Amino acid sequence: MIRIELAQTEIRVGETLTGQVVWNAGGGKQPRKIVVAVHWIASGKGDRREVEVIQMSDEDVASKSQIVVPLSVEIPFGPLTYDGKVFKISWEVSARADLPFAIDETEKMAFVVRPAIWSLDQFQSSLHFDDGDDDDDGDDDDDFDDDNDDDSSS
């Protein structure tokens, strides 16, 4: 039996989603590998798009009664979880035990991605404006003369 254990089911962009995928032998077949993926799904009005953020696998699974695959993924800056009338965006972790000559065991677990909360300093440091001034003299307004109010159009 395969199961997903997440440390949190709600996370903010830029944070790290942690947890593990656990497979326990139930007297059946031994898997060839365990595959874990984190992805987001955009769906609505008959269309569905799935984007994989990361996929990892553990292939060192021979003769083990329990297999644990640790999960640690930094959530990118978007998209956020959204549940609207026309479309929705959801995030999930999926796990698959690749069983030889049998139907694979699968499990999925949804989680919510929220916007980051930034301090004023973090927000200001994330802003980068190119003023077009390439002379590196520290004067960012070489192209403008604020003291000259001469309006030649009058």
Give structural attributes.
154 residues; mainly beta; three-stranded antiparallel β-sheet; 1 helix; 5% helix
The helicity comes to: under 10%
Number of strands: 9
Distance between the amino and carboxyl termini: 82 Å
Broad shape: globular
Mean pLDDT: 83
Strand content: over 45%
Q: Helices and strands: which structural class?
A: mainly beta
Order of helices and strands: EEEEEEEEEH
Would you give an account of this structure?
The protein is built from one helix and nine strands, in the order βββββββββα. The chain is mainly beta. Strand 4 (33-44) and strand 5 (47-58) form a beta hairpin.
Write a brief structural summary.
This protein is mainly beta and 154 residues long.
Present the secondary structure layout.
Elements lengths: L1 E5 L3 E3 L3 E9 L8 E12 L2 E12 L7 E9 L7 E2 L4 E11 L6 E10 L5 H7 L28
Parallel strand pairs: 2-9
Antiparallel strand pairs: 1-3, 3-6, 4-5, 4-8, 7-8, 8-9
